[in-house]
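Help! Submission page says 'invalid entity' but I think these are all valid:
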Amino acid sequence: MVARRRLKGDYCPSARSLDAIGDWWSLLIVRDAFDDIRRFSDFQKSLGIAKNILTDRLRTLVDRGILETVPVGEAKARVEYQLTPMGRDLFPVMVALRQFGERHLFEPGEEHSLLVEKETGLPVRLDIRTQDGRPIDAAETVLIKVPED
Amino acid sequence: MVARRRLKGDYCPSARSLDAIGDWWSLLIVRDAFDDIRRFSDFQKSLGIAKNILTDRLRTLVDRGILETVPVGEAKARVEYQLTPMGRDLFPVMVALRQFGERHLFEPGEEHSLLVEKETGLPVRLDIRTQDGRPIDAAETVLIKVPED
DNA sequence: CATTTTGGTTTCATAATGCAACCAAAATTC
DNA sequence: GAATTTTGGTTGCATTATGAAACCAAAATG
């Protein structure tokens, strides 16, 4: 496992989130999980990750409450992995990554997958707003740190 | 450098974003850049990253257009690193990570840094909406893949 | 102008990862 | 229902990435 030093700035929520996810593979696994991948072998094929590493990362994500195992069929020996409610709260992270990719990493006209509202088919996007609902720009925000950084 | 195999599903914008960022350290560097860290030694202190690795990652992020070097002082030999406009578009990813952390990784009442609107001091949040501005839930979305996955 | 700091590079030890072989249990095929 | 294939791993070893420390030149500081 990536025995990553806990990030300095433990008071910082995004730092903690990154710690909770753990490492790069784990982030990719979570991404696949949002893509409805559930089985060991499907994660493995999708990511090209070594099986021993995948075993480890799935176990860690389950330990951290981001994934959970659900028994498949009647036998309890075989399981699938799915996002917990907490794991599903990483959805905005995935949408944000998607939006960045759409904006910067595709040629105009190049085809890509698209996230839409089920009912209407309208594309989904994500905005930064104040708590009272006004959209604002990154430049209008400021980070208030807690004392003794 | 992490010679990561290009992710399968190259048509997927979030996969491309993750490829563009590159690896875990790079993501942490970007996070620090949003925290107004600009100098080599400050990244190094903040992250506890080995200097040779930091050199490599900064160079890669610059190559990919996420960071840029700006000469500091009158000498052009010394540079600082700052987010490009493209790099700044990763802001929602950071806000999403922050929001997840605030929700799940702090005890009630536990102190953390806070992102607010400069002018009003109101907390910043991020919502998933349809293109026409209605807030929606993750469960109401569906991913439309391009053919031949 | 002497000293310290910055922004690196190089080398080497160590840790993480990838690969292939192997395996038992479950699922599938005949 | 026996044989075969697939699944979901584990183990051991080779390879690769990372971390630590030493070192260095240029810039900044005293």
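Support: the input was valid. A stray whitespace character was the problem, and the output above is from the cleaned input. Residues 1-3, 49-53, 73, 75, 77-78 of chain B lie near DNA strand D (CB under 10 Å from a C1').
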